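Subject: for your reference before the review

Hello V.,

The reviewers asked for a structural picture of the protein, and I figured it would be easier to keep everything in one thread rather than splitting it across files. Below is the amino acid sequence we used in the manuscript, unchanged from the supplementary table.
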Amino acid sequence: MKCTASRTRRLIGPAIAAILAATLVPAVASTDASAQPGDVVGLINAQRTQRGLPALTVNSALNTAAQQHAAAAVQLKWWGPGQDSHTNPQTGSTPQSRIMGAGYCPNPRSWQVAEITYTGWGTSGTPSAAVRWWMNSPGHRANILSGTLREIGSAALAGSADRAGAGASGAATYVVTFGRCQR
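And here is what came back from the structure prediction:
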């Protein structure tokens, strides 16, 4: 299942979709030449459904949290070997604080959130490269295949979040947020 721009517009509204479309990663030259920015959600849901898990539902607050974190990461470029890509070094924000700050699941009885991040360039800057890397990392794979998480938000921005990839061709940064909210 692919998440298309029209589905995004229905879910988060035309104004927000226009803003996101202006900053999302265009298709990059690689084996994924026809990739669209929303492909990361479609690829994650394909991994889930291949294993008998339900597809995740796109949530606008989770999209907002992912978008804000990806934008900060591309601007500040703090990701890299040995660095914590989940904690913003300027603001101290964490996945939980960003997701809740974006308005996800106010006044819950029970909730759970998670985040995965990826940056790459050249042929490694594609949605497929990001999902392949996550699926080969036990912690990231566990988030993608969690049976308790039900919703997803994502961001895909042009540019690297790692100084080593600054100015590189095909650079892209991906942030995916997950959630479960019970009120």
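For the response letter, the relevant points are probably these. Strands lie at 57-58, 110-120, 151-158, 172-182. The chain has a mean pLDDT of 84.

Happy to draft the paragraph if you're swamped.

O.
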